[in-house]
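User: My notes are a mess, but here's the protein and zinc ion's SMILES. Can you give me a structure?
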Amino acid sequence: MIYHQCFIESRIAAGKRPPPLIRNKKRCTCRQEVTPEEAKELIQDGEAVWIVIHRERKPFQITCTLCRGDKEVKNCAECRGKGVLERYYTIDSYGDDIVAISIALRTPRTPTVESEHIFRAYVDGYLPSQKRIEEYGRLNAEFTRSLIVGEEPPDDPKTGTGRKYDFGRPIT
Ligand SMILES: [Zn+2]
Ligand SMILES: [Zn+2]
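Assistant: No problem, the inputs look usable. Here's the predicted complex:
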């Protein structure tokens, strides 16, 4: 497998750029080969992450942060009385290569801008930094689930999304 060191793959992995629709092998000159064992070690050490080949943005609903879903409040300025707010989370599909990540990008990407501070505190509070990246996908799914009102995303073993992958870790 290739160990990318390039700007473009690290930006994509960090969620700063969308993955390309068609992956052109000539788009970078990275040719550094690593064994699967080395790749695993680099990921565990927080030096690298899997390259992202596809990214999906999915909507979900949270209880309104202003009225807390109180049905008595008819003219809530935030939700207009619906009691819920629409938010989005992303599901990344990973490729077979890895990419080095810069120190600045090692704090995991967050599902939504609004919940960034909550999520960051949650991750920082629970996990040593080198575990953050590999745990991120699972936590992301759990965190998202904790906010979902109604419909759940389908079970997906790669992203850890869905009922089957609920580990029941409390949000504090
Ligand atoms: Zn590259
Ligand atoms: Zn409201």
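The pocket of zinc ion (ligand 2) is lined by residues 64, 66-67, 76, 78-79 (CB under 6 Å).
User: Great, I'll file this with my notes.
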